[in-house]
Fold this protein.
Amino acid sequence: MKVNGQKKTVEVAAAVIFDGAKVLATRRLGGPWDGWWEFPGGKIESGENAGDAAVRELREELDVDITLKGLLSILEWDYPEFHLRMHCFESRLADPAHAMHLSSHSAACWLAPGKLYSVRWLPADLQFIKSLDLLQYIKQNIITRYDHFDRGHDRNHVETVISQAMHLADFYDVDRMMLYTAAAYHDTGICEGREHHHTVSGRIIREDSRLREYFTPDQIETIAQAAEDHRASAKTAPRSIYGRLLAEADRIIEPMTIIRRTVQFGLSHEPQLDREGQWERTHSHLKEKYGEGGYLKLWIPESDNAERLAALRKIIADTPRLRTIFDEIYKEETR
């Protein structure tokens, strides 16, 4: 505990656990707040980081393992006896089929969109409900759009970009919900084609009336600009820290994944090319975008993308090795 004025500050970690758009709420058992609802979690122990505390507490309270997706918010609240600082992590159950066993709660339930106010939340947790409503809207109405896009822009891609953006946000003083929203919407413009998808994504953000319930016009404009600026082939630097964070998160430089996605894109969009044609296209694209002097730019020094880009460039520079990798992937993708 730390002293905050005349009150002690209690640091806690909470897991905001999603199953699709539904979120888990738990009802307290015993004590002065008996019967009130909260996000499961508990105190951060001395020497423990908040993420580890959330994982440990969920094992102790619900007998479940969780996977953390990123820090969503740090809430502050003054209770009569102490000041609370609560770290809220987006999470999912590692094994959804594993049954929960409650040890510190009298009940648990999954709240669907529109049902968030059907339970009586603890005062500190209640602060997060507006943001939670936004997250449920995004998961139900925005993330699902990616199920209809190609494999390079599918649900797995957008969820990875969101997670990457949330981790990079740890190094900067930004509004996490703004960054989360920009990441969630950044490729929605693919619905009108790949070439101008970044500008279409910006338009989709500006035209989404629901976002006006959560953000000011200036905030919405910043979110839209971040989506417009994320593209690797952009000729100018992102206009804000949100654009730089999103652009960096979107890179996801994992050498073998990038090579595979390049092959997949060629097979999907230029199916008329034979094996040698696909090889030439793959080789040319990788050199143009990721090779030495390529157009891809990195913006966030705290990211590990620079190290991964260097590893990818070594593969690209070694043409025989790259050809071997291409041949293996091509064979797998054309079976």
Remarks:
- Residues 231 and 247 are 7 Å apart (CA to CA).
- The chain has a mean pLDDT of 95.
